[in-house]
From TrEMBL:
SUPFAM superfamilies for this protein: EGF/Laminin, Protein kinase-like (PK-like)
Species this protein is from: Vitis vinifera
Protein name as catalogued: EGF-like domain-containing protein
Subcellular location: Membrane
Assigned keywords, A-Z: Disulfide bond, EGF-like domain, Membrane, Signal, Transmembrane, Transmembrane helix
Membrane topology: Single-pass membrane protein
Amino acid sequence: MELQINLMHAMLLWVIAAAAKAASQTIKPDCEATCGDVSIPYPFGTREGCYLNDDFLIACNHSLSPPKPLLWNSSFNLQVLNISIEDHRLRIYTFVGRDCYDKMGKQYDQPTLAYANLPRFPFSDKGNRFTAIGCDTIAVFNGLNGADDFTTGCLSLCNSIRSVTNGSCSGIGCCQTSNIPKGLFSYYASVGSFYNHTKVWSFNPCSYAFLAEEESFNFSSADLKDLQNRTVFPTLLDWAVGNKTCEEAKKNLTSYACKDNSYCYNSDNGPGYRCNCSSGFQGNPYLPNGCQDIDECADPKRNECTKVCINTPGSYTCSCPKGYHGNGRRDENGDGCTPHDDQLLIVKIAVGIFIGLIALLITSSWLYWGLKKRKFIKLKEKFFQQNGGLMLQQQLHGREGSSESVKIFTAEELEKATNKYDEDTIIGRGGYGTVYKGILADGRFNVN
Ligand SMILES: *[C@@H]1O[C@H](CO)[C@@H](O)[C@H](O)[C@H]1NC(C)=O
Ligand SMILES: *[C@@H]1O[C@H](CO)[C@@H](O)[C@H](O)[C@H]1NC(C)=O
Ligand SMILES: *[C@@H]1O[C@H](CO)[C@@H](O)[C@H](O)[C@H]1NC(C)=O
Ligand SMILES: *[C@@H]1O[C@H](CO)[C@@H](O)[C@H](O)[C@H]1NC(C)=O
Ligand SMILES: *[C@@H]1O[C@H](CO)[C@@H](O)[C@H](O)[C@H]1NC(C)=O
Ligand SMILES: *[C@@H]1O[C@H](CO)[C@@H](O)[C@H](O)[C@H]1NC(C)=O
Ligand SMILES: *[C@@H]1O[C@H](CO)[C@@H](O)[C@H](O)[C@H]1NC(C)=O
Ligand SMILES: *[C@@H]1O[C@H](CO)[C@@H](O)[C@H](O)[C@H]1NC(C)=O
Ligand SMILES: *[C@@H]1O[C@H](CO)[C@@H](O)[C@H](O)[C@H]1NC(C)=O
Ligand SMILES: CC(=O)N[C@H]1CO[C@H](CO)[C@@H](O)[C@@H]1O
């Protein structure tokens, strides 16, 4: 019975794994997964039938090497760098505005404007900064935000290249504004100067301005010369689906973009909604079966089980092996796995036997040594008797008050008195044995 269940469980796992492998792709079948080195996950796509709607068209120009992905179509000229379906961000290149002068303070080339006009997807309100570079520079940023247009700007001045600090855009050689507002789809930025760069021309002939991802640019004094020939910078966009809220979109399930095991949330920057895989799932929430179960049991960091972990769709359960009880969890509500009482009894008995054995060992060895000592004493008594010690004692006792003049010494007393039978204490050797001279512990002098 148990074997059968285990076998079924194993087969189920195998089926799930196979399904996960088949659907682990983030694109529709028969659609391009990449353009150049940029991956194009659904809802974006390069061909009719591969994208969700026209908002998600990526025009891939294959005649270039490497192929170049452009957002919407080539008339917008917005090169795509990254598409993320996890944080719903899109990274594109935007152009640098510049205004350059010759030594005499005459503008050369036409000044270029930094601008972008997006019909869909606003600029990310977090992570983008408007930056201007120059030592005779005033920059103005105009955001076209429907009714409430947004204007900001900054001023950057300096007298010598020594006064600028690498990495600092605080108005000396470089200036930066704080984050831009939400819902900004278009902007243009212009740069101007006070003295046509005549006072700083030797090290700074141009002014520059651009909107860029904050991390993509570190100011250095070398930028004052030619901005190291950069003409574009990465900029972040926040993308979303359509212009409806989740509630409105859910009314038409044929057009609703969030598929199995996903949930919907409204965009916090501009109109539209977004999809995320439900907790316990990962993958592409815009594809049917795109959100795949996470096997929490395979990763010890993802589960709280102490002994047995069983993966379930979107979650997992903990249990305890046979002979144990508890919920098998190690979080604050968990009590782990403890052995059953009968199991506990076995453990107790085992410990009892162990302690008993040790006690037995101690007592038996104690008895053994005790017996040995007694035997020794008996032997001593026997020798005492054999050598007429008893008779001597009786005779001595018979004589009144004579215990003072004659005394039977123990072997230890004799040994001490003769200084361990030292040669120097020998008085003479006779037929009954050697005669030693000894001094008793109480000072009395004796001869034996
Ligand atoms: C691809 O890029 C080349 C060079 O910029 C251009 O001439 C061509 O028109 C582009 N093709 C498409 C389909 O946009
Ligand atoms: C690009 O898209 C816009 C609006 O979606 C359209 O007006 C224009 O004709 C398209 N251009 C090309 C070259 O497809
Ligand atoms: C959606 O998922 C992303 C990345 O996994 C996460 O950063 C974001 O907080 C999620 N959004 C919501 C509303 O749960
Ligand atoms: C600065 O340049 C502009 C355009 O080239 C010119 O009209 C203006 O006279 C110049 N001003 C100075 C102070 O050189
Ligand atoms: C800018 O500098 C920081 C540290 O100062 C560094 O972590 C980052 O990678 C640099 N960015 C670029 C684009 O060089
Ligand atoms: C600033 O950086 C440039 C090049 O990145 C370097 O040549 C210059 O010495 C640096 N200046 C300081 C003050 O570190
Ligand atoms: C910028 O371009 C000019 C001319 O094309 C070149 O001389 C210079 O070395 C380039 N600068 C950098 C930093 O690449
Ligand atoms: C929402 O988008 C649809 C098509 O994309 C368009 O026809 C409609 O006018 C838009 N509605 C609003 C309120 O912007
Ligand atoms: C639901 O969406 C589909 C596809 O966009 C469309 O063809 C259909 O007319 C819509 N139904 C309703 C009731 O709006
Ligand atoms: C998250 C991600 O895909 N980042 C990539 C964005 O594009 C740049 C350059 O094309 C890559 O270096 C990043 O790894």
